[in-house]
Fold these 2 entries.
Entry 1:
Amino acid sequence: MYDILVIGAGPAGASAALIAAKSGKKTLLLDSNQSITKKAWIENHYGVREITGPALVELGQEQAKKFGAELVQTKVENIEKASEGLRVDTENGSFEARHVILATGLFTDLAEKIGVQTKSGTEPRVKTIVDVDALGKTSVEGIWAAGGIAGKSLHTIIVAGDGANVAINIISELNGERYVDHDVLK
Ligand SMILES: Cc1cc2nc3c(=O)[nH]c(=O)nc-3n(C[C@H](O)[C@H](O)[C@H](O)COP(=O)(O)OP(=O)(O)OC[C@H]3O[C@@H](n4cnc5c(N)ncnc54)[C@H](O)[C@@H]3O)c2cc1C
C-alpha cells in the first residue's frame, strides 16, 4: 500500500512525488511518457537560466527517485475504491494507495472515466479540467489533482509549484499537522 500515488510524471506530478517521497511517505509515480513539457524550450522557470523540456522532465523525475519515489512507465486505465484506500489499475497490473494525485496535464480521459467532477477550462486551448477545492481535492474521496489537469496556468514553474502544494496538503492530512520541509545551510 502506497501512501501517495501520483499519476503523471511531468513537472506537476514529479514535483508532487519529490515532496511526498522526501517527507518519508511511500510514493509511487506512474507515467505514460506523453508529457507536453517534452515539446518545450524553457527560459521563464525561476532559478533556471534555460533548459529543454525533456531535460527538465528527466531532472524532476531523477530528483523524485533520489528521495525514494518509485517510477513506473505505464498507462493508468482505471481507479476504483478498495477495501482500504484506492486501487489503481494499469496496463501492467494494479497498485493500492491511500491517496492518489491526478497530474495528467491535458489528458482528461482517465478523470472522465473514473467520474471525478470536471468543468470547462479557462486557460487558452484547455477545454476541460478537474474541479478541485483550494487544497487540490476532487469530488472523490482520496483523489486529488494538480497542475494542468487542475486548471492551473500552463507554465512549468506554476504547475510544479501546484504539485508541491497538493503533496504538502496530503502529507499534512496524513500527519495531522501542517507539514514544512526546510533544509538549513550548514
Ligand atoms: C510547445 C510548448 C512550449 C512550451 N513552452 C513553455 C515555456 O517556455 N515555459 C513554460 O513555463 N511552459 C511552457 N510550456 C507549458 C508547460 O510545458 C506546461 O505547463 C506543463 O508541461 C504542464 O505540466 P503538467 O505536469 O501539468 O503536464 P505534462 O507535462 O503534460 O505531464 C502530464 C503527464 O501525465 C501523463 N499521463 C497522462 N495520462 C496518463 C495516464 N492515464 N496514465 C499515466 N500517465 C498519464 C503523461 O504521459 C505526461 O507525462 C510549453 C508547452 C508546449 C506544448
Note: The two ends are 36 Å apart (CA to CA).
Entry 2:
Amino acid sequence: MKFSINVPVFIVFILLYLSYAVFFQFNHLTQPFYSFSKCGDVRAENHVRFLLTRLLRGRDLEEVNKNGISCVNRLPSVFCVTTGDVRIKTGARPIVFLSAGQQFSNGTTFSIKPYPRQNDEAAMVNTMSIDIVSHVESNNGIPMCDVVHVDPAIVFSTGGYSGNFFHAINDLIMPLFITTSDFKSRIQFVIADYAPYWIKKFSQILSQLSAHDVVVASSSYFPVRSRVHCFPGAIVGFKYHDTLNINSSDAPGDLNIMDFRHFLHQSLSLKNAPITPVAGKKPIMVIIARRKSRSLLNENEVAHLGSEVGFDVRLAPPSRLKNVTEFSQLVNSCSVMVGVVGAGLTNLVFLPKNAVVVQIVPLQLNWDARVCYGKNPSEKFGLRYLEYHVRLEESSFYTQYSKDHPVISDPNSIKRQGYPAFKAVYLDGQNVTVDISRFKHTLLQAYKEVVSVNRSMTS
Ligand SMILES: *[C@@H]1O[C@H](CO)[C@@H](O)[C@H](O)[C@H]1NC(C)=O
Ligand SMILES: *[C@@H]1O[C@H](CO)[C@@H](O)[C@H](O)[C@H]1NC(C)=O
Ligand SMILES: *[C@@H]1O[C@H](CO)[C@@H](O)[C@H](O)[C@H]1NC(C)=O
Ligand SMILES: *[C@@H]1O[C@H](CO)[C@@H](O)[C@H](O)[C@H]1NC(C)=O
Ligand SMILES: *[C@@H]1O[C@H](CO)[C@@H](O)[C@H](O)[C@H]1NC(C)=O
C-alpha cells in the first residue's frame, strides 16, 4: 500500500486533536476522561492500563506491573490480564500470542478455559482451552496482524452451560459486567465456542458492554477463518465473584448487585411498573411453566386459582421465555412470579423492586431453591419471597415409587451416589401437582404482600 500525506486533511486532524485537548482541559475536573481519550495518545494508554490492572490486587498486581502479564488461578476466578500487546489467532484452535515481551512468572505457556465454574467437569467439557504463549515459546513465530484493534480484548467462551438461563446470567452476563463495565464499552469481545443464537439472544445487553462487533475466535456452528487480531492488552477469562454474587470490596471494586440490576434494566429499557394495583388494573402474576421436568402438572388449575385470588394471570411456557427482550418486558410489569425450582425463575432479575417471588419446591430440592433459583437471588435483587414446599402426595414420586423405596425413604443413599444420580432422580425425574386448597394460602399471602406495598416504595 502507498501512503501520501494530504495536507488539508492533516491540518484538519491537528485542529481536531487540539480541540479535543482543549475540551479535555476544561472537563477533566468534572468528567471521567475516558470520554475524551482517543486512540493511541498517552492518556488513553494509561487509562487502559489502569482499567486492566484494577482487576488485580496484591501479588497479582505486582506481577503484571513487573512482567506485563499475570494469571490468577484461585477459585472462583481463573483469568489472565496482560497490559502489553497481544495477537490473537482465530480458527479451530485459537492462540493468544504475547507480542510485547511479556513473561509468565512460571513457564512459557498458560492454558485456560475462559469460563467460570472451573471445577465443574460438565461445564468444562463444553469449553475449549486457549493457549496463551510467551515470546519465548512462540520462538519469534508471532504472526503478523490482519486486523488492528484500538481497544483491549476480553477473551471468553459461550460454551459451558450458556444455554441455560440461570447460567447465562450467572456464568456469563454477570462476570462480563464485573470484568468489563469499567471500560465503558471500549473493550472488544473475542469469543470462543461462539454460539450465534446466544449472542443474538443477549445482544441488547452485550451491546451495552462493548461498542464493537464481536470477534469470533472459534465456533462449532461454522468454520472460522484463521485471522490474526491485534490488541493493546487483553483479559482472558473472567473475574468471577461466585454464585450470583458481586463483592464490592473485591476487584475491580465499587460494584454491587444493585448496579448489575440497574445495568440489566437499563440495557433492556425496563420501566419498572408499580407492583401495587393501580386504578382498575389487577396486579399481574406470571407463572413460569416447565415442560420436561419439574413440570407443574396442574398449571391451568393454578392459573385459575390466581385469577380467583385477584391477579391478572399470564402462563409463560418455555417458548415464551426465549426472547429476552420481549419476556423481560412482561416480567417487569408483574407483581408476582410463580414457578417450580428451575432456571426460568432467574427471570426474577427483571421484576420491579418489591415484587413477590413464589417458589414451589419439590422434594429434596431445598439447596437448589435457596442458592440458585429463588431464595437468595430474591433477597439480593430486592424482592420479597414466599416458598411452597411440596408434600409427598403432591410429588409425582407418590405414584412413581413405593413409600419404602430409597428415593423416598432414604434420599441420602441417592445423594451418596453422586450429583448425576441425584440430578436424574430429584431434578429430572420429578413433576408436581400442587394441592389447590393449600396453595391458595400462599397466593393469598402473595396478594396481601402486593396490596400492602406503598407505591412510593416501588420506584
Ligand atoms: C508452574 O507451572 C507448572 C506447570 O505449568 C505447575 O505445575 C506449577 O505448579 C507452577 N508453579 C507455580 C509456583 O506456580
Ligand atoms: C469480598 O472481597 C474481599 C476482598 O477480596 C474479601 O476480603 C472478602 O472476604 C470478600 N467477602 C465475601 C463475602 O466474599
Ligand atoms: C424478540 O422480540 C422483539 C420484539 O418483538 C423482536 O424485535 C426481536 O427480533 C426478537 N428477538 C429475537 C432474538 O427473536
Ligand atoms: C413430567 O411431565 C412431563 C410432561 O409435562 C412428562 O413428559 C414427563 O415424562 C414427566 N416425568 C415424570 C417423571 O413423570
Ligand atoms: C404511602 O406513603 C405516603 C407517605 O409515606 C402516604 O402519604 C400515602 O398515603 C401512602 N399510600 C398508601 C397507598 O398507603
Note: The longest helix spans residues 7-27.
